[in-house]
């Protein structure tokens, strides 16, 4: 860490729990962020500002004027641009020391698996069940910690599936893929703009804690926010032994 970095990240370094060692882990970290929309915007900004060494951002969508109410990594000049490219431009101004790798398409199949296998932490900031389940399956396969968030209307949720541990629940334990749950999307239902900032900031905090190895993450806990009353509640999560994705500890180890 050079003198400029010591000064830039001094407020992290002053924290006993992070210190020089933790900040160096952030600088050496590689995070895969899937989605550069409402949740991905604050996540990307905080991770870049905090000095994450490599940030891979995947998004196949383009910036629309209706995104600007909440997707704060984008600007009016970004309208019509790919979201991952637009985010990379903003992040370069925030912190040029963070290397941003851009994937200008929706990751799927083998390409998704390759990117997840290469990352230290995976962040799900997508907006559909198919993508979330695909991310989850790959994170289980490669034992990668997954930071998951969602926000619609005034309701948000955030958790961590720390799939490095055999007894961790996965996303499919919470939302079984075969259940066929109805999609609830912002485009159809609206979303309170600060809500994605709140949930995204919590996701960013969980990523940094995972990289540093400090504190207690949200693994095994689902936090739910009602932004109308600003009331948080916590639900305990356990692995479903019958889950077809992660199954029992012995079944997972055999994968």
Notes on the structure:
It is a single chain. It is globular, with a radius of gyration of 18 Å. The protein contains 11 helices and 8 strands. The relative contact order is 0.15. Strand 4, helix 7 and strand 5 form a beta-alpha-beta unit. It has an 8-stranded mixed sheet with strand order 3-2-1-4-5-6-7-8, sandwiched between helices. The model is unreliable at 249-255 (pLDDT under 50). The protein is α/β, with parallel strands linked by helices and 255 residues long. It has helices spanning 3-8, 10-13, 19-28, 40-50, 83-94, 109-118, 129-142, 171-174, 186-189, 193-212, 249-253, and strands spanning 30-34, 54-58, 99-103, 121-124, 145-152, 155-162, 221-226, 231-236. The protein has a single domain (3-253), classed as 3-Layer(aba) Sandwich (Rossmann fold), CATH 3.40.50. Helices cover 39% and strands 18% of the residues.
Report strand order across the widest sheet: 3-2-1-4-5-6-7-8
Rg over alpha carbons:
18 Å
* Overall 3D form: globular
Beta-strand residue percentage: 15-25%
| CATH architecture heading | 3-Layer(aba) Sandwich
User: Termini, distance in Å?
Assistant: 39 Å
- CATH structural class: Alpha Beta
Which percent bin holds the helix content?
A: 25-40%
Q: Count of helices?
A: 11
**Would you count the extended β strands for me?**
8
Element-by-element helix/strand order:
HHHEHEHEHEHEEHHHEEH
How many domains would you count in the coordinates? 1
CATH H-level superfamily title: NAD(P)-binding Rossmann-like Domain
Mean pLDDT: 93
The fold-level CATH name is Rossmann fold
Q: Which ranges are low-confidence, i.e. pLDDT below 50, for 5 or more consecutive residues?
A: 249-255
* SSE class: alpha/beta
């Amino acid at each position: 860490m050079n003198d400029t970095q010591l000064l830039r990240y001094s407020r992290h370094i002053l924290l006993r729990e992070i210190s020089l060692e933790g900040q160096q882990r952030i600088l050496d970290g590689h995070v895969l962020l899937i989605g550069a929309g409402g949740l991905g915007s604050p996540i990307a900004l905080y991770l870049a500002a905090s000095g994450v060494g490599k940030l891979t951002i995947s998004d196949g969508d383009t910036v629309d004027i209706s995104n600007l109410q909440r997707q704060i990594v984008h600007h009016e000049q970004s309208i019509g641009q790919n979201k991952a490219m637009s985010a990379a431009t903003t992040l370069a101004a925030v912190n040029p020391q963070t290397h941003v790798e851009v994937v200008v398409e929706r990751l799927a199949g083998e390409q998704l698996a390759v990117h997840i296998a290469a990352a230290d932490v995976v962040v799900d900031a997508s907006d559909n069940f198919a993508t979330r389940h695909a991310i989850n399956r790959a994170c289980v396969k490669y034992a990668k910690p997954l930071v998951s968030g969602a926000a619609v209307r005034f309701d948000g949720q955030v958790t961590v599936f720390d799939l490095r541990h055999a007894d961790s629940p996965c996303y499919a334990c919470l939302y079984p893929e075969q259940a066929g749950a109805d999609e609830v999307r912002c485009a159809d239902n609206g979303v309170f703009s600060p809500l994605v900032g709140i949930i995204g900031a919590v996701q960013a905090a969980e990523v940094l804690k995972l990289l540093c190895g400090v504190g207690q993450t949200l693994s095994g806990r689902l936090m739910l926010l009602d932004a109308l009353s600003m009331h948080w509640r916590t639900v305990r999560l356990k692995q479903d032994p019958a889950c077809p994705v992660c199954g029992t500890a012995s079944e997972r180890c055999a994968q």
